[in-house]
Design a protein that fits this description.
This protein has 21 helices and 13 strands. The chain has 585 residues and is of the alpha/beta class. The protein has 3 domains: 260 residues, no CATH class; 80 residues, Phosphorylase Kinase, domain 1 (2-Layer Sandwich); 201 residues, Aminoglycoside phosphotransferase (APH), C-terminal lobe (Aminoglycoside 3'-phosphotransferase, Chain: A, domain 2, Alpha-Beta Complex). The chain is globular and about 75 Å long.
């Protein structure tokens, strides 16, 4: 089934260089501490995006990775910033040595109006992957400075830079694996090949997040090295987790993975178990909300339901693939939710959005942001679905969706096109209900492109499920998870507000009259009419996507979760079947 997407944004090299220069100047004026370190990591991520975007343009033009003046300048800038991050982390956030004049010269050299295609690192945005984990892994590896470090784009660009800086190696080179998802390969042009292999005695370090289902990105680089440098040269892996390769890995890759040294420090070890108080998440949180009365309580992977839903029989489903790391902080002033929101610009963007929503009373009060984690008041309330007053809730939904459409800035990354949503809908429907039903759905959605001129992409919520709402707050209801589903790495992304109206109609089984009231309220609130026919098509899209989302979640879920996932997937299947019958009638 079709569930995942490939989110990118377009940004000019000029704009990125200007942002890096401004943020470096701001950091120079800050006092030492975690706030300054946060900003420095954000600059590292910006410089990594700049290097990634420039390298990908050149890769696209010649079909291979090769040495160039732009790559050298971007790599030189990135390794200098990585040096600052490493020094800051290892010396309690003290400012390290920096050649400001050289960085300014490199930024001037890299300034150009050319549009770059930027892939935001999923680990930095969703999964609590910290560059500092790679710093610690590199330091503990005891590797010498003569190692050749290779980063895998996209996210491996900045991660490989901190590994190089931590062991004192030269600036890393980066490569772009291409090809089928489980059988990727790399293409290295002659000059870069000579540079990578110039020291016949040097070993290699390959850096990336993952591995995922196949580990073929790591494997493609190691394959090339074995074929060109010889099997006697040792390969070190710097992955994002301590697990094995996924089920789609080849035997060759599995054998090598088990035999090769791997250097990993995960987030728990980094931020929860550090011997240095200044490196502990609990200390950062206590600076915001006061002393903690007990250690942070991990409520990730659906454990939040124990504090919210009580009886396990009433638990909603949890899709662990998309769950953020989250903790409860116990203080004299009550409980606080500490939830991963993202590093650098990502976290700052979500923090600004969270402040807007909280100030308007739609989400719980906010305390602050500490290096990737939002700190928000934990509201002890039960799910709104238990005692939902439908008329009041539909009115509240109208206000909430109109506020999002009117006040929240649209994400820089767009959402799936109508044609892509049509493709997903037909594919997922056929998988769930068979070819005959898929043909009927295709007949209904094939003309969806006629609505293209009506679309106004906004920061849609994309998760209006009943368990996402609490009966609490001055407005009577609070949304629990409202920040980043339009920026996720699933297929949907940012859509017209009609998508959320469609989602609400499905999730709360709204009657035609209730749906019309909701649509009218949103139209009035955002000062433009929402097309009813477009919303009806979006309901089919929405159902097909939810079928794919929950059906695929079940495949990797533990046994105690599978029945919940099966139940919610079955509901969407039955809803889509019913709508198909109504259309046929």
């Amino acid at each position: 089934m079709l569930v995942y997407g490939d989110s990118k944004r377009s940004e000019s090299a000029d704009a990125l260089c200007e942002a890096i220069a401004e943020r470096l100047a701001k950091i120079e004026r800050q006092a030492p501490g975690i706030a300054r370190h946060m900003g420095l990591v954000g600059v590292l991520l910006n410089a990594g995006e700049l290097a990634q975007g420039l390298s990908d343009i050149e890769f696209k033009s010649i079909g291979a990775d090769e040495v160039s003046s732009a790559r050298k300048a971007a790599g030189g800038l990135l390794i200098q910033i990585a040096d600052l991050v490493v020094h800051s982390w290892l010396h309690d956030f003290a400012w390290g040595p920096a050649d400001a004049l050289r960085m300014s010269a490199l930024l001037r050299e890299l300034r150009k109006p050319e549009a770059l295609s930027i892939r935001e690192g999923e680990g930095f945005a969703f999964y609590g992957l910290y560059p500092e984990s790679y710093i610690e892994a590199a330091v503990r590896s005891k590797l010498s400075s003569n190692k050749v470090v290779i980063g895998i784009r996209s996210i491996g660009t900045s991660l490989s830079a901190v590994v190089s800086a931590a062991i004192g190696a030269a600036a890393p080179e980066t490569v772009r694996p291409v090809g089928p998802p489980y059988r990727k390969r790399i293409a290295i042009a002659p000059e870069l090949s000579r540079q990578l292999l110039r020291d016949p005695h040097a070993d290699f370090a390959i850096v990336d997040e993952g591995p995922g289902l196949s580990g073929s990105s790591f494997g493609s680089v190691a394959d090339w090295l074995e074929e060109h440098a010889g099997r006697e040269r040792r390969i070190h892996f710097f992955p994002g987790h301590k697990g094995d390769l996924g089920p789609e890995a080849t035997r060759r890759h599995r054998v090598r993975w088990k035999a090769s040294p791997r250097h990993v420090v995960d987030m728990d070890e980094l931020l929860l178990g550090s011997v240095r108080p200044t490196h502990r998440l609990a200390c950062w949180v206590s600076d915001i909300v006061g002393p903690l009365e007990r250690p942070l309580q991990d409520i990730s992977c659906g454990a939040w339901r124990r504090a919210t839903a009580g009886d396990q029989r009433a638990w909603p489903p949890a899709d662990r693939r998309f769950e953020r790391r989250k903790f409860l902080a116990h203080t004299a002033n009550g409980l606080w939710l500490v939830k991963f929101a993202g590093l650098g610009d990502i976290g700052e963007r979500k923090y600004a959005k969270a402040r807007l929503l909280a100030a308007a009373g739609f989400t719980p009060p906010l305390a602050g942001l500490c290096h990737g984690f939002l700190v928000q008041k934990w509201v002890s309330a039960h799910f709104a679905a238990r005692d939902l007053q439908r008329a009041d809730f539909v009115a509240h939904l109208g206000e909430y969706l109109a506020f999002r459409a009117r006040r929240l800035p649209a994400p820089k990354t767009g959402g799936a096109s109508l044609s892509k949503l049509c493709e997903m809908t037909v594919m997922n429907t056929e998988e769930a209900l068979g070819a005959a039903v898929a043909r009927s759905v295709r007949a209904r959605v094939d003309n969806a492109l006629r609505y293209a001129d009506l679309l106004v992409p906004i920061d849609t919520d994309n998760r209006l499920h009943s368990w996402e709402w609490l009966s609490a707050g001055e407005r009577g209801f609070l949304k629990t998870d409202a920040l980043d589903h339009s920026e996720g790495h699933d297929l949907v992304g940012a859509q017209d507000v009609a998508w959320d109206i469609a989602g609400a109609a499905v999730e709360f089984d709204l009657s035609p009259e209730e749906t019309a009231k909701l649509r009218a309220a949103v139209s009035d609130g955002c000062l433009r009419a929402v097309n009813a026919e477009l919303q009806a098509v979006f309901e089919l899209f929405y159902l097909a996507f939810q079928i794919g989302l929950w059906a695929t979640a079940k495949k990797s879920a533990p046994a105690d979760e599978a029945s919940r996932l099966e139940a919610v997937a079955s509901r969407y299947v039955n809803c889509l079947r019913q709508r198909t019958l109504e259309v046929a009638a």
